[in-house]
Design brief:
Layout (H helix, E strand, L loop, with lengths): L11 E2 L13 E3 L2 E5 L3 E7 L8 E6 L2 E6 L19 E7 L10 E5 L2 E7 L15
Parallel strand pairs: 2-7
Antiparallel strand pairs: 1-2, 3-4, 4-9, 5-6, 6-7, 8-9
Length: 133
């Protein structure tokens, strides 16, 4: 089991110099898992500390943007130790013609955003029945 230990990847802070955004504050790229099955793509984005009201999902020009705004923690006092950095989340994905953009859905639970991107019918694999002659 020790060989299969899972290690958390450190957060990656986005560089404002990259020109990705013009908003104030620290932004991180949320870690994502993307699953592909016959009917859809599923994106799971980790955004701990972000409530559903503070998530924006924008789709324009085939670019899907996810923005999660984190409210400041309510702890009072001076930190003696702080290992967990907080900030907002931002990530974009280019959507291809395989996705039916009109049917994209999103849900959020326990700090994980779940995006379901259904495939267009022509991209869904299907078996062609063969008629006997």
């Amino acid at each position: 089991m020790a060989d299969q230990e899972i290690q958390a990847a450190p957060k990656q802070e986005l560089s404002p110099a990259a020109g990705e955004f013009t908003r104030e504050g620290v932004y991180f790229s949320p870690a994502v898992d993307i699953f592909d099955n016959e009917r859809e793509l599923v994106v799971l984005a980790d955004m701990p500390g972000v409530s559903v009201e503070d998530v924006e999902i924008d789709l324009r020009d085939n670019v899907l943007s996810i923005i999660g705004k984190m409210k400041p923690d309510g702890e009072k006092g001076d930190f003696l130790l702080r290992e967990y950095r907080t900030g907002n989340y931002f990530r974009t994905f280019r959507i291809t013609e395989v996705v039916d953009q009109s049917r994209i859905t999103a849900a959020m639970a326990d700090g994980v955003l779940r995006l379901v991107l259904p495939k267009v019918e022509k991209a869904v694999p299907r078996k062609i029945p063969i008629a006997a002659e």
